[in-house]
Amino acid sequence: MSVTRELPENAGFFVTHRWSILLGLLALLILLDGFDDHFVWADTIALWGLSLLFLGVVGATERRTTLRLIMAVPVVAWFAMILVSELWGAKMDGSLAVVAAILLFGSMLISFRQLIGPVHSEYERLSSGIFGYLLIAMIWGLIYWRIEVAHPGSFNLPDDVGQQRAPFVYFSMITMTTVGYGEITPAASLPRMLTGLQAIVGTMFVAIFIGRIVGRLK
Questions:
Q1: What are the TM regions of this chain, as residue ranges (predicted)?
Q2: What architecture is domain 13-217?
Q3: Three-state SS for 118?
Q4: Taking a C-beta distance cutoff of 8 angstroms, is the pair 173, 196 a contact?
Q5: C-beta separation of 154 from 123 below 8 A
Q6: Measured between alpha carbons, how far is 194 from 186 in angstroms, rounded to an integer?
Q7: Are strands 185-186 and 155-156 parallel, antiparallel or unpaired?
Q8: pLDDT for 125-153, tens place per residue?
C-alpha cells in the first residue's frame, strides 16, 4: 500500500517537486561533464552546479533530523574550501574531491530513503530512485577516474582519451546498464573487480527499484 505525506497548502514549488528538480540538475551536470575538454567555463559551471545539488539534497532531507545535520557539516566545509580556493587561489583539488565523494555518497543514501519512506507523490519517489541510480553511476565513474590518474594503464583507453573525467563516467554508465560497448575496458585486477561488482549492483538496483515502485502503485 502506498504511503504518502500530506503537505501544507502553501508548500512551494521546490518542496512539492524537489526530487524532480534535483534529478534534472544532476542530468544537466552529467551532460555538462562532456564539455569540460572543449570549454574552459564548463568546470566552473559544473562546480557551482554541484554546490547547488548538495544544497538541494540537504533541503530535501527531513527537518530536524540527524541525517540533515550530518549532511550539513560537509556542505559547509565544501563551500568554505571553494571560497578559500577562489579568493586566495589555494590548491584544494584533493580535499574537494574527498568532500565531494562524501556528499555524493550521502546524497545517494538520502535518495534511497525515499524508496521506503513516506512521500507526498509517487512521482517524487520515482524521481528520487532515478536520482540515486545516476549517482551510483557517477560515484563509480569518479572512482575509475581516480584509479587511472593514480595508476595510469589501469584501463585500456582509446587514443583520443586521456585522463579526463567524462569518459570514465560514461564507462560507468554503460557498465551499470550492462551494455558494454568495449572501447574502454579494465586492464588491472582492481578495476575488473569493481566493474563486475557495479554490473551486479546495477542489475539488483533496477530489480528492487521496479519492484518497490510497482508494489506501491498497486
A1: 12-32, 38-57, 69-90, 96-116, 128-147, 167-184, 196-215
A2: Orthogonal Bundle (1.10)
A3: coil
A4: no
A5: no
A6: 9
A7: antiparallel
A8: 888 889 999 999 999 999 999 999 999 99
